[in-house]
TrEMBL record:
Organism from which the protein derives: Celeribacter persicus
Keywords, alphabetical: Membrane, Transmembrane, Transmembrane helix
KW Transmembrane helix (keyword) present: yes
Name by which UniProt lists this protein: DUF998 domain-containing protein
Transmembrane region(s): 23-42, 62-79, 91-110, 140-159, 171-196, 208-225
The UniProt record lists the keyword Membrane: yes
Domain of life: Bacteria
């Protein structure tokens, strides 16, 4: 049984709703590959974390993508709150969206990468938000907002999204929710290894925090593409390409 009814397909408002979800998933899907290709091409290496691309030539890619995700989420209406729910889709999405904007515009502590031919590097200039609340406070805002953002996604995947008549999609959502939790645990473990476990070089050389964050973002993308029925949209596009209407 299709998860999208024929009446939904003929309703432009419903289809627009799906396209917003798809756009949200696409932005998240392409962010890590863009940073990987850009980082290797422009700097010859990856940064230690996704957040540290704020201090790279790819700053606009990082902040622009997060800002787009934040605006999408804040504008996301979702379903009205049910009697058995503590909060609605819209409240959860708004919290996640605000968190994404805070991650984008309140940078964490920067990696100090020395320019070519120099033994020591000059720390990057402070941003407006760092000047307003301080570098350390900005880092705290950034890190806490990132945690809140991912936890909101976990709630979406484990609690909100599975409330569907589809037989298959709830399993995908739940797998995404647990996947994000595993990614968060991996990030926390890598951070602990670098900070207190004496394995900072190992963590940095293998970019463990970056890959943990990238995995979380990719899983987030999969969840929203599934919620936006991107699979059905792709199949419909393929059918039109193979058998165009005369």
């Amino acid at each position: 049984m299709s998860d999208t009814s024929e009446s939904d397909k003929s309703d432009p408002h419903v289809m627009s709703f799906y396209r917003v979800r798809q756009a949200l998933g696409v932005v998240a899907l392409i962010l890590p590959p863009a940073l990987i290709v850009g980082g290797m091409g422009l700097e010859g290496s990856l940064r230690d974390s996704v957040s540290n691309f704020f201090f790279s030539p790819l700053r606009e890619m990082f902040t622009g993508s997060l800002a787009a995700i934040g605006v999408f989420l804040i504008s996301y209406k979702g379903y009205p709150r049910r009697s058995d729910e503590t909060f609605s889709d819209q409240v959860l999405a708004s919290v996640a969206g605000i968190s994404a904007l805070l991650v984008a515009f309140f940078p964490s502590l920067a990696d100090c990468i020395p320019p070519e031919g120099m033994a020591h590097c000059v720390p990057p200039a402070e941003t407006v938000t760092q000047k307003l609340i301080g570098v350390s406070a900005s880092s705290w805002v950034h890190n806490l907002s990132a945690v809140v953002f991912f936890l909101c996604l976990v709630i979406f995947c484990l609690v909100q999204f599975p409330k569907t008549e589809s037989r298959v999609r709830p399993y995908i959502y739940k797998a995404c929710g647990y996947g994000i939790l595993v990614a968060l645990a991996g990030i926390a473990g890598a951070f602990a290894m670098a900070r207190w476990g004496g394995a900072e070089t190992f963590v940095n050389v293998h970019n463990l925090i970056f890959w943990g964050e990238a995995a979380g973002i990719w899983i987030f993308a999969l969840a929203w593409l599934t919620k936006g029925k991107a699979d059905q949209a792709a199949l419909a596009l393929l059918r039109r390409a193979v058998s165009p209407e005369k």
